[in-house]
Structures are given as C-alpha cells and as structure tokens.
Specification:
Keywords: Signal. With 170 residues, the protein is mostly helical. Helices cover 70% and strands 0% of the residues. It is built from seven helices and no strands.
Length: 170
C-alpha cells in the first residue's frame, strides 16, 4: 500500500510539476516527507508530518482526477485554476497544522488541550472541499487517537483556518 501511495504521488508530482518553479504543494510535501521519514525526529513531529504528506497526496489525487476527467473539457485556464487551488490548499493546510501545533503546545491544562483539539477537529470536518463520500480515506486520521492531527483529509483548509482563527479569538 505504501509503495502504491509513493508511486501515485510520484506520478502526480510529475504531472502537476511546474517547469519554471517548484510548486508550493511539492515544496511542502517534500519538506514534510523528509521529516516524516526521519527516524531521529520526535514521533509526534513525524506523525504531524505524515498527516501533511497524506493530506497533500489526497489533494494531488483529487486535482489529478479533475484534470483527467474525460467528461469535462478543461481549458488551460481551468487547469491553471485547479493547480492554483492545489497549492493554496496545501499552503493553508500547512498553516493550519502549524497553528494547531502551536496552540496545542501552548495549552496549559488537559482541559484546554481538549478544547483546542475540538476546535480544530470540528473546523476540519465542517468545511469539506470535495464532499468526498469515501469516508474510509477522508476520516483516516479523524478517529485516530494515536495521532494529534485528528482532522479530515477532505477539508477546505482556507475556510477551516478562518473558522479556527475566529473561534480562538473569541
């Protein structure tokens, strides 16, 4: 399964790669992958990085599916928009995870940690991007108590981050 994901990711990366500059999503993916596979890193740091890798892989897969969908005739502008959305979602997901990590670490009590986790979990599930019916994939981390990043992969990260910031400021 892991080899299959790596092969798909490599395919997606090559299809979506920009000639002039490295894509934001690819930069975040590469950085997260490096941390996730570094056995000298703290296990929780590696798990957060693994979530980022899987979230970007999910976004890449959905973007590629839209691009190769033969029922739609996409213009170059449509494809550019999909790629820009991919980069934007990857960037905001990265910011989301970083903000979560910062807020969770700053929380003093277990009660506060639980509140922070709930705010972030709820925002991820309440702002789907694709409304993907494949809940096994979408919720792969959501119900995993062995991961702090218990978030849906099918998330509109821009909306979720805005929601979280609003709730944290309240």
């Amino acid at each position: 399964m892991k080899n299959k994901i790596i092969a798909i990711t490599l395919l997606l990366t090559s299809v979506l790669a920009s000639n002039a500059q490295e894509r934001v999503s690819k930069q975040i993916y590469s950085s997260a992958y490096k941390v996730a596979t570094d056995k000298t890193e703290d296990v929780n740091v590696r798990k957060a990085a693994s979530f980022k890798v899987d979230a970007i892989t999910y976004l890449n897969t959905r973007t590629l599916s839209a691009i190769v969908d033969t029922t739609r005739h996409l213009s170059n502008k449509d494809i550019a928009h999909l790629n820009a959305q991919l980069d934007s979602m990857a960037f905001y997901m990265h910011e989301y995870i970083n903000l979560f990590t910062k807020e969770y670490a700053r929380a003093g009590s277990q009660r506060e940690k639980t509140r922070i986790l709930k705010i972030f979990r709820d925002a991820s599930i309440n702002h789907p991007l694709y409304n993907d019916p494949d809940k096994d994939i979408v919720l792969a981390y959501y119900n995993r108590e062995d991961y702090l990043t218990q978030f849906s992969l099918d998330t509109n990260w821009v909306a979720a981050l805005a929601d979280v910031k609003k709730k944290l400021a309240a």
